[in-house]
Write a structure and sequence with these properties.
The protein has 334 residues and is of the alpha/beta class. 35% of the residues lie in helices and 20% in strands. It has helices at residues 2-13, 46-55, 70-80, 83-92, 116-122, 150-161, 170-175, 215-223, 226-232, 258-264, 291-302, 312-325; strands at 27-28, 59-65, 93-99, 105-109, 112-115, 130-134, 140-145, 203-208, 236-241, 247-249, 255-257, 272-277, 280-285, 330-331. The chain is globular and about 55 Å long.
């Protein structure tokens, strides 16, 4: 009887019910936010909104977001709530907020209607905030993926408002401003490659140029972060000057230049990262990412998770839950 009681004591003591409560990770920097009160209250009939904007000589801007999005918070605080951007936006754009996980019905045109989340898929929205600009005919003329700081966002606003999308790509417009905002800097992971046609493993190509308003912060806070450095070791990492006309060979074996290659890839953001594996582009970062999301984007490719999850966002949702369940904190604050 004594042995039985002793066994029962230890069984109960070490059973899950008596085990220490499992610590769950927490997310840092993912604060709730409110949208500006001056955003347009819309009946979500987009062509009607376009007509009204046209009568006021404005473009429609769709501000596509999700709840508790750190990039949305920063974008709103820096560009829509303060500074000279706010008044400029109010004067030249009708801003309509859409939640990419929402269920509100949107009449896109006389033949098409979507829920908010279905429209996000239709418009290839993969990051938040994503800004979709519509012209007087209701056609998408520019899509801005992710956060931009005030200097970079100013170029986007002027580019659209002045209808320069009729004449050139954004990167060409920015380069014509003749601003030197950044000097290209070295990095311990960068390799000097001129022929990319022989790479079958994970390959990361980072496009920068002298007009890059986000490159300094990106280098300091993302590329030099210890977690990112660890993931970068699984890649061949090459930084290209997106304005360079020096010859190189792309992944398909074509003779080109960094400038022409960036144009062929329709990469309109600097610093833009394009990730390849097995000779094919898998995904890209054409908007500002904090170190956690950038690190996980690299892992998505190097770990072959794109074969299991068709989009990075689907992978990220599962991955974040795994980390939080394992007691790992996730930092979105930088």
């Amino acid at each position: 009887m004594t042995k039985y009681c002793l066994f029962l004591f230890f069984f109960i003591l070490f059973s899950p019910a008596f085990a220490a409560e499992k610590v769950h990770g927490k997310i840092i920097g993912e604060d709730a936010y409110t949208l500006p009160t001056w955003f347009k209250e819309s009946f979500l009939e987009i062509q009607e909104e376009v007509k009204e904007a046209k009568s006021n000589k404005k473009h429609v801007m769709l501000f596509m977001h999700i709840d508790r999005c750190p990039y949305c918070t920063r974008m709103l605080d820096e560009n829509f709530r303060s500074g000279d951007r706010q008044q400029y936006i109010e004067n030249h754009f009708d801003v309509i907020a859409l939640n990419i996980r929402g269920d509100r019905e949107i009449l896109w045109d006389e033949n098409s209607s979507y829920s908010e989340k279905t429209l996000a898929t239709e418009l290839n929205v993969h990051f938040t905030p994503t800004l979709i600009f519509l012209n007087a005919d209701g056609k998408k003329v520019f899509q801005m993926n992710g956060y931009r700081n005030p200097a970079a966002f100013k170029h986007v606003l002027n580019y659209v408002n002045d209808k320069q999308y009729l004449n050139m790509k954004l990167v060409d417009y920015v380069s014509q401003q003749d601003e030197s905002l950044y000097t290209l800097k070295p990095h311990p992971q960068y390799q000097d490659v001129k022929d990319f046609s022989k790479f079958n493993g994970p390959l990361a190509i980072i496009f920068e140029d002298k007009s890059c308003a986000d490159c300094d912060e990106f280098r300091k806070e993302v590329l030099m972060h210890r977690d990112v450095l660890t993931e970068m070791q699984k890649f061949t990492v090459v930084r290209l000057d997106a304005l360079s006309t020096k010859p190189l060979i792309d992944v398909d074996g074509n003779k080109t230049t960094a400038r022409d290659w960036a144009g062929h890839l329709n990469l309109d953001y600097r610093p833009g990262t394009v990730l390849f594996n097995e000779g094919n582009e898998i995904t890209r970062a054409d908007g500002r990412l904090y170190h956690f999301h950038y690190k996980e984007l690299l892992r998505y490719v190097s770990g072959g998770y794109y074969q299991q999850y068709p989009t990075y966002l689907k992978y990220l949702g599962i991955r974040q839950k795994q980390l939080l369940d394992a007691g790992v904190d996730i930092d979105f604050s930088m």
